[in-house]
Amino acid sequence: MTLLSTNITFLNDNDRINIVEKPLEFLKSLKGLTVYDIEGVNQNKTRIITTLIHGNEPSGLIACHLWLKSNERPATNVRIIFCNPEAAQTKPYFTHRYLSQNDDLNRFFTLAAKTNVIADNKQNIKSQVTFRAQQILSLICNTNKNELKPNKGSVEAILDLHNTSGASPAFAVAIKSDIKHKLLAEFFTDNMIKTTIPVGAIMEQALDAPIVTIECGGANENKSHQVATIGVQNFFDTVSLFKRESSLVKIRFNPLRVELKNDATVGFANHPLQTTDITLRVDIELLNNSVTPAGEFIGWNIDNAELLFQAIDSDNKDRATSLFETRGGLIYTIRAMQFYMVTSVTEIATKDCLFYITLIDNHSI
Predict the structure, then answer these.
(1) Per-residue confidence in pLDDT tens, the chain, 365 aa
(2) Domain range spanning residue 196?
(3) Alpha-carbon span 323 to 89, nearest angstrom
């Protein structure tokens, strides 16, 4: 069964007049992988935004829809790529992260960069998702792979717009922390994580220009849509992206990915659940907002057992026992840390991860 179309819809300046008024109607109008190419004042450079890689993260679409509808002319050429409309169009709208249960598009870009899936070889969803990731990379990298329409001008910068699944302030993620990546992040936030944990995401790939992932904040928060809208506007309007030599962006290094072990289960409540191995406190998303001190209670671990989650570092080593402890079946932090991407959505916490953390001090684990 084909879930993802192999076709790409290319639109341009002439199509802006036909853009519908509301973001939801705009979503419904998209036909598979959709690209808007808009000519700028400087036509020797192109700035790219990818969004809707996850169908339940609407801020990028809302911001880009508003900008496209404005008919403003950008400082350079612009390419906006709506990556996975099919997931967002699955009812209820904007609630499905991806189409198939375990096939997250933003985990397939490394595989896509290493393989060559052709349109006739997509009998299963994994091949379809890999092919879609391959198409998106080709749209960014200015190549004619898969016979895609190339960009006009050299690619200057790439932003990948997302939302967090739980309530959260905005932050950026990149694999580099040089001044160019900081200045791109600064359009949206003053906090950036330099990650060394590979998950197959688009921002890990060797592309033609600096790329930064922007987590605009919680998917259901108006503030997140405002952050995205202002950031997109300024990204497209700024004449010289990299003129400045300094940035106010603060970098957090060496994140750890905290995820369930084996077949462990998780739930969220203000008391220990009898139906899951781990119960995280019901207000766990509040930890996204500030530094969490050592000794903070975060939940319950069933039957006083060993920790049923792991904290994976860049060397793929589990550091959980150096960071968390159980006392009488209660789970506490051992070190001061900053939580990121904490979610109380059980499906995402189970199939992806519970959260990420960075340490506040610089001591070894």
Answers:
(1) 458 889 999 999 999 999 999 999 999 999 999 999 999 999 999 999 999 999 999 999 999 999 999 999 999 999 999 999 999 999 999 999 998 766 899 999 999 998 887 665 556 778 889 999 999 999 998 665 555 777 788 999 999 999 998 999 999 999 999 999 999 999 999 999 999 999 999 999 999 899 999 999 999 999 999 999 999 999 999 999 999 999 999 999 999 999 999 999 999 999 999 999 999 999 999 999 889 999 999 999 987 678 999 999 999 999 999 999 999 999 999 999 999 999 999 999 999 999 999 998 755 55
(2) 8-252
(3) 40
In the listed set 220, 252, 284, which residue is the last one of a domain according to the structure?
A: 252
Q: Which domain CATH number covers 77?
A: 3.40.630.10
- List all residues 6 or more positions away from 283 whose beta carbon is below 8 Å from its beta carbon: none
Is 1 part of a structural domain of the chain?
Answer: no
Q: Which residues contact 358 (CB under 8 A, 6 or more apart)?
A: 193, 252, 253, 254, 255, 256, 337, 338, 340
Residues 311 and 231 in one domain: no
Question: What is the domain count for the chain?
Answer: 2
